[in-house]
Hints:
TIM Barrel, two-stranded antiparallel sheet, magnesium, eight-stranded parallel barrel, Aldolase/citrate-lyase_domain, single chain, 12 helices, Pyrv_kinase-like_dom_sf, binds ligand LIB3CWND, Pyrv/PenolPyrv_kinase-like_dom, 2 domains, alpha/beta, binds magnesium ion, 16% strand
Amino acid sequence: MDPRTRPCRSVLYIPGSKERALEKARGLAADAIIFDLEDAVTPEEKVNARATLAAELAKGGYGKRLRIVRINGFDTEWGRDDAKAVTEMDADAVLLPKVSSPADLAALAAITGDLPIWAMMETPRGMLNAAAIAAHPKLEGMVMGTNDLAKELQTRFRADRLPLLAGLGLCLLAAKAEGLVIVDGVYNAYLDEEGLKAECDQGRDMGFDGKTLIHPAQVAVANTAYAPSEAEVDLARRQIAAFEETRASGQGVAVVDGRIVENLHVATAREVLAKAEAIEALQAG
Ligand SMILES: CC(C)(COP(=O)(O)OP(=O)(O)OC[C@H]1O[C@@H](n2cnc3c(N)ncnc32)[C@H](O)[C@@H]1OP(=O)(O)O)[C@@H](O)C(=O)NCCC(=O)NCCSC(=O)C[C@H](O)C(=O)O
Ligand SMILES: [Mg+2]
């Protein structure tokens, strides 16, 4: 599916060790799931989590949602065995944490072969190497790790995320240049609906495809914020109709609601409609 219109509005992390959460996710309206073997799993549970997750994925029931497994880094004792284990799982992609250079992805691809790779972008070096990382041939998506990034940058929390904007922007540019999906970082205060909505709106305005989430209560907010609104769909339809009419009369520029509509605006309008249709198809199961 075209990464520019593929629904990735809500990407929910689920600890790979928690059977109850793994079961619950089958009934949640998240567009994609990150089955986590890294930060959400304690060292004591790491090895068993691999088997638990493999068994749950084998049972199926996750529908058309994208199933991504986040492994531990290769600087840990679990990373390589996780990568091998994922190749035997019923997963759509593998997610590598703390990617700092394309060499990290090459090391993973040497184990996972043709399995699509996603990269956690969460280190200062990763931000600086974002363009080279995005160009790796196996890479399909980027996930912002804003907690790790804030830790490494020694920033303080700000609702406007000013200290993180340079890194977010670099990764967005890199992902869009290579036609990748890119999803924003998590909002930690998982019961603060207003704060989450504000951060989703900011991410959507910047061009992110969706938001990573940590709790089921966050799914509906992200789904609404990252879906084309009724007004956007209506405007897109009117722009396309007006432009086609204008072209038929030999003109190159239409006007809708007092604003010009050229062929590039029509391309955006078509993406809006394609995304709305893709969301409908995903929801229909
Ligand atoms: C945050 C939580 C620890 C809260 O857990 P809990 O108190 O158990 O929540 P609730 O009682 O409100 O749960 C209600 C029901 O929902 C299920 N549940 C909870 N979380 C999830 C989930 N993520 N996916 C699916 N289902 C979930 C519970 O099982 C309850 O079900 P039921 O019993 O049937 O009613 C917890 O939500 C949690 O652990 N969340 C995930 C945390 C996580 O994944 N962290 C790692 C990813 S974030 C990250 O790594 C950041 C990144 O790398 C960076 O650097 O920024
Ligand atoms: Mg992280």
